[in-house]
Amino acid sequence: MDIRTQKTFEALFALEDIRETLRQRLPNITSPEEENTIKESVNRVRKILDDIENYTGTPEVRKIADNIDIRSREETNINIQPIQAAGRLTPEARKALIAYGDGYSTCDACRKPFRLDKISSPPVAPFHEQLASFVNMDVARVVPGARRGFQAVASTLVNKGDSVIVSALAHYTEFLAVEGAGGIVREVPLNEHNLVTADATAEKIEAVKQETGKSPVLVMIDHFDYQYANEHDVKGIAKVAHQYDIPFLYNGAYTVGVRPVDGKSIGADFVVGSGHKSMASPAPSGILATTEEWAPKIFRTTQMTGDLTKRKFGVKEVEMLGCTLMGSTLLGMMASFPTVKERVNNWENELKKSNYLIDGLLAIEGSKIVSEYPRKHTLSKVDTIKSFDLIAQEHKRRGFFLSDELSSKGIVGEFAGATRVWKLNTYGLSWDKVRYVVDTFQEIAEKYNIHVNREENSND
């Protein structure tokens, strides 16, 4: 970690020490001892700020609570990790973590009917309305990750033995959601381009009907899958599902928050998104949005009454287990939302950067793209069996040589030790960083005598 980053963390920690003193004092009363503690901490902050300004000093704080490393991955490196790129917090979200870190901070002003989506201060209720509008659906809830969105829909619609149509590239959490509800997944096969089509979905539905004697109860398909980040015909698939009177769940874990999503135009009955994967939000966070038709079922309220106390909690939503995201997780998501709403309009530029990087990798002799090409997403899967893996076979560090070379240049996030088939993500990187990454990969190749075709990249 460079010293300025180190000292920035130390300054933040020192300010938190001052904050703790202010928390421990009597309201608006500071004792002489507390004043002295504050002055000492302020002087320490001043010294740290001088170090930041002058690029001086030595590390003084290496651990949090004695055993937790300081995470400076984003401050000191270019991170191309495939699942982290669009989850980087905005400065506003990081500030929200500081201000709302206490467990039930969201609930300070909670009033009847005592439900998360009804809280007006902070503006949680308007945020729910904005989320629904953001994906052009009628009603939305925040959930602890996309997986809990899948779970809420599956537990509502799926009974024991029911079939649910998923992609042959479906995420494991879709499987778990169906299994937890007692259902059975039925996978739509891929075509020769590793794509799920509307025709293949129709054929699978017919096959399930013939085998079981009844239709599947849900079709759940990813817009972009997590393995290749290929784009699947969700609009066509939704149309097919509705022709069979089957509701359609749009898995937008890799789209909601990074590119425009119009749930009604797609034909979705349910839209699920991931906050920590694609909405610059703390984990675990996500959204579940639906239509007016399905909202009363998915967001049903409890009807149960205690046999002894006769207590009722009728306002609480069963699938949400009452309230979902509380404290800093929700406020971080809310704080990032204005930026997220704007950045989806920059998707075409993000695609240009993605294709620029992939073209740069393809210029390295022997490298291939496994995902569809040109890229329609910033997440990509590449094949370097005939390039970097040839080096790994002879190198004393084997596949870790590439990680070593990249990290020495400040690039992290590729799967450590992977030189055969692996994934990366360019989302949110500046053009300068994208060019730097391309140059670094090509310089590594040339260092080990792999030819690079250095023709000018037309995508720039």
UniProtKB/TrEMBL annotation:
Species of origin: Methanosarcina barkeri 3
Organism superkingdom: Archaea
Record's function text: Converts O-phospho-L-seryl-tRNA(Cys) (Sep-tRNA(Cys)) to L-cysteinyl-tRNA(Cys) (Cys-tRNA(Cys)).
Name recorded for this polypeptide: O-phospho-L-seryl-tRNA:Cys-tRNA synthase
UniProtKB keywords: Protein biosynthesis, Pyridoxal phosphate, Transferase
A GO biological-process term: translation
InterPro entries named among the record's database cross-references: PyrdxlP-dep_Trfase (IPR015424), PyrdxlP-dep_Trfase_major (IPR015421), PyrdxlP-dep_Trfase_small (IPR015422), Sep_Cys-tRNA_synth_arc (IPR013375), SepSecS/SepCysS (IPR008829)
Residues annotated as binding pyridoxal 5'-phosphate: A146, R147, N251, S274, G275, H276
Pfam families: SepSecS
N6-(pyridoxal phosphate)lysine: modified positions: K277
Transferase as UniProt keyword: yes
Similarity comment: Belongs to the SepCysS family.
The enzyme's E.C. designation: 2.5.1.73
